Amino acid sequence: MGQFFFDVPETAQDFISRSLWKDAYICGIEGVPWQSRNEFDGSRLTITRGIESSGKLFLTCPVEGVGYCTLNTCSLRPLEEAHLLLLELARGSCYRARIQSDAWERAGLTLTSTFLELMADGTQRFLDAAQRRGDPGVASEYAIEAISILEQANAELGDSYAIQSVSFRKQRENQLGTLLAAAVVPPSPTEPDHEEAFCAAFNSAAVRLSWADIETDSGRFDYDAAEQSIRWCASKGLRVIGGPLLDFRERLMPHWLYLLEDDFESLLQSVCNFAERTVLKLRGSVQLWNCASGLNTPGPLKLDDEQIMRLAVGILQTVRRNDPNTPAIMMFDQPFGEYLAKHRDAISPLHFADAIARSGLGMAGFGLDVRVNYASGATLPRSAIDFGQMIDRWGTLGLPLLVQLSIPGDRGADEKAIYPLEPLPETSSELDASSDQLRIASPLIRTLLAKHIVHGIVWDGWSDALPHVLSHSGLIDAENEPRPLLDYLTRVRRDFLA
Question: Crossing angle for the helix pair 349-357 and 384-395, nearest 10 degrees?
């Protein structure tokens, strides 16, 4: 058994207590989180896992000037003596900034003066911390300063890469062919209040074909709302992404499924029957099928790996058999795989995707569902650099990607959310939640536009004034007023997309 001990002096205890230390994990060279048990007694963080080998600690912390950010150490060995936590996190930030900037500069990236100044200041603060290791309190104070400066440098570096890469793409492609869509719950977005704004911001719409809403009782189907949304999209010249047909999350599955909880064969038959009926009903009006979402993460039904795979293959086969001319994808939740640190028997998202891709069923690509800044069931907040590296890893599978993003634009209860999640607490009073949504989302969207492998971007949430899936994720707030991110997406559509 391998244990990692990290000391936290009194001067840094508040910094760590506000971190998401319960969600911290250790990753090996392969990038897959290991299941671990985490303990923090106020002065020492202990990470325990089943194997004794080196690895990197990943820990999400509130960083001044950045907000919540997932930091990581360099590779460490499990030792009996403790590592100084803040110093190792600062070392990791310094290493990432220097290595990534060197690699990109060699590839032709022009480093900005802002980045170079931040890099120099942050490196000096890290060296100050390292030289005072004998005084853990002082060293940690310098390390916290170094982390803040270096993570701002990483943010600047990631933005420079995205902006210059998108400019390079624009030189070769007058208009990018990327799909830009908002996910809507039928009959939205047919309401007249913001239909012009929707068409100005998006060239596509992801119409949820929720099994729970369409087959409210076993054997009774109602497609009226879905057909209304799809007809509206067709009248506006918008391409339609249909689905997910199966969303394997609590509250998004039919309530009557508990009757089939102990009968997997009947469950599989019900899933495939719904998929077949839906595809036959709507084929010709949907340009891309999203077959399923969330099968790789633990869901409301207790299924083993073989059953999960059979569900995925069964629904994909059904869609391809009944509509062979329309491309079909499968969506994977939390693509960094953070949930693996808490669930021993969970499936690695990348390995699951690779297995389905090798099945020979003609899948057209992968979908990645990235929910950020929620306290549970979400992707931990990442820098644009880390986000881009994750996209590159998925790109090695050789299929196009569609990325679905959602970030809360408000806090507190959300009565119209179908799948409510609690947003992370604010880290600064400088920005309201809707402005913070724009601050976090814009560099991620620019990073996606810079990647040739990304063929589609979906914002998961149109209006909080209407029924929607995730808490506060809408581009229209609960008072039916546009949030700043909608204007940003409108400018992206106008300037870059066909």
Answer: 30
Residue pair 382/417 in contact by the 8 Å Cβ criterion: no
* Nearest CA among 318, 329, 496, 498 for reference residue 400: 329
Structure confidence at residue 29 (pLDDT):
76
Task: For residue 180, list its beta bridge partners.
Answer: 457
Q: Coil, strand, or helix at residue 215?
A: coil
Per-residue pLDDT at 430? 58
Return d(Cα 89, Cα 139) in angstroms, integer.
12
Q: What is the DSSP letter of 258?
A: G
Do 316 and 273 form a contact (C-beta atoms < 8 A)?
Answer: no
Q: What is the pLDDT of residues 75-106, one digit of tens each?
A: 888 777 888 999 999 999 999 999 999 999 99
Q: How many helices (H) and strands (E) does the chain have?
A: 13, 18
Whether residue 187 is preceded by a cis peptide bond, meaning omega within 30 degrees of 0, is yes
* Two tokens, residue 106: 């060699």
Tell me if residue 482 falls in helix, strand or coil: strand
CB within 8 A of 458, min separation 6: which ones? 179, 181, 182, 183, 206, 241, 402, 403, 404, 405
Please say whether the dihedral angle defined by the alpha carbons of residues 233, 238, 242 and 248, taken in this order, is positive or negative. negative
Q: Is the dihedral of CA 428, 433, 439, 443 positive or negative?
A: positive
Beta bridge partners of 119: none
Greatest alpha-carbon pair distance for the chain in Å reads 70
* Alpha-carbon gap, residue 70 to 405, rounded angstroms: 17
What letters, b where the CB count within 10 A reaches 16 and e where it falls short, cover 410-432?
A: bbeebebbbeebbbbebbeeeee
Q: Which among 91, 59, 61 is positioned nearest to 74, based on CA atoms?
A: 91
Task: Give kind and range of the element (H or E) at residue 177.
Answer: none
| Cα 362 from Cα 329, distance rounded (Å) | 9
CA atoms of 160 and 114, how far apart (whole Å): 10
Q: What stretches in the chain show pLDDT beneath 50? A: none
pLDDT of residue 304: 85
| Closest among 62, 69, 68 to 93, alpha carbons compared | 69
Judging by DSSP bridges, how do beta strands 56-63 and 67-72 pair with one another? antiparallel
Where does 25-101 show beta strands of DSSP type E? 25-27, 36-40, 44-49, 56-63, 67-72, 83-84
- What's the pTM? 0.91
